[in-house]
Amino acid sequence: MTPDYDELHSRIRHLLEGEDDWVSAMATVACELHHSDDRFHWTGFYRVVSERMLAIGPYQGSHGCLRISFDRGVCGAAARTGETQLVEDVHAFEGHIACSVTTQSEIVVPVKDEEGEVFAVLDIDSDLPAAFDERDQEGLERICGWLGERYGR
Ligand code: SME
User: Fold this and answer.
1) Of 15, 93, 110, 128, which is most buried with the most CB atoms under 10 A?
2) What confidence tens digit (pLDDT) does each residue in 38-57 have?
3) Domain ranges of the chain
4) Pocket around ligand 1 at a 6 A CB cut-off
C-alpha cells in the first residue's frame, strides 16, 4: 500500500528540525522510508563523490554496491539525467546493476542543490514486480526536493 507521503514528509521534517548534518539526515530518511512500506526492500542513498561517480550512503536492507559510475545502472541514469527513474522491470533496463538477485523493480530520485546539480540519489528497490507508480514518484520527489533545498551545498 502506498504510504501517506504527506505524513511521512512532515515526520521527516520534524525529526530533522535543527539538524544540519547531511549524513544524519540521509540515515534518518532511509530508516523512516524503509519501514513505512512493505514494498521497500532496499532503501538508501548514493552520493556524488567525484565527477560522474556515486558512492553508497546510509541505507537499510541487504548489502548494496559500493560505487556506481554515472554511465551504469538505474542510479547512474538518475544522476546523469537529473530525472527520476521509475523502472517496472529491472531486467529490461539496459545496464541495471544486480546488487541483489531478488530485485524486480525500483525507483531512483535525484537530490539537487540550489543550482540544480545532483549531489545524491535516493534509491528504493523492491522484490515485487512493478512495485512503484506515479504516487510514489510524486511523494518521493517532494521529499527529495525538500532535502535538496535543506542540505544542498
Ligand atoms: N539497483 C541499482 C544498484 C544499487 S543497489 O541495487 C542497492 C542500480 O541499478 O542502479
Assistant:
1) 110
2) 999 999 999 999 999 999 99
3) 5-151
4) 42, 64-65, 68, 73-75, 96-97, 99-100, 103, 106, 123, 125
